[in-house]
Amino acid sequence: MSDHTVAPVVPTPALEPPYYAVVFASVRTDRDPDGYTGSARRLSGLVRRIPGFLGEDFAHTPGGLAISVAYFGDLAGIEEWRRDPEHLAAKERGRERWYERYVIHIARVEHSHGFTRT
Q: A single Gene Ontology molecular function, please (predicted)?
């Protein structure tokens, strides 16, 4: 959901485990692309306000697969995000218009490390 046209593309840094990753993989329809973009930007801003939110990464392939990974410090943050009224409304619009299919995986991260070229 991040807009990488303004900022450099940088993955979320390695975090101190344990924490949780919510992986949202989707294939979109061609319907309502403008409504989708605005909603995705709005949700990306809203999720940052959830206690325990740690960051997010987003990528998509030329073939249409999009993957968004949101990181949370605990399951309570994930549950709060799941119940957010705007998020719930966007999920409903997504099922009605924007997605051919999607899957959500929630995983506990036990190990995290990174590399940055100097």
A: monooxygenase activity
CATH of the domain at 76: 3.30.70.100
The string of pLDDT tens digits covering residues 15-59 is 999 999 999 999 998 876 668 888 988 999 999 999 999 999 999
Assigned domain for 7 exists: no
Please state, as a whole number, how many other Cβ atoms lie within 10 Å of the Cβ of residue 101: 9
What are 55's strand-pairing partners?
A: 71
Task: Please state whether beta strands 53-60 and 19-28 pair in parallel, antiparallel, or not at all (unpaired).
Answer: unpaired
The one-letter code for the residue type at 92 is: E
Question: Distance of alpha carbon 29 from its chain centroid, rounded?
Answer: 18
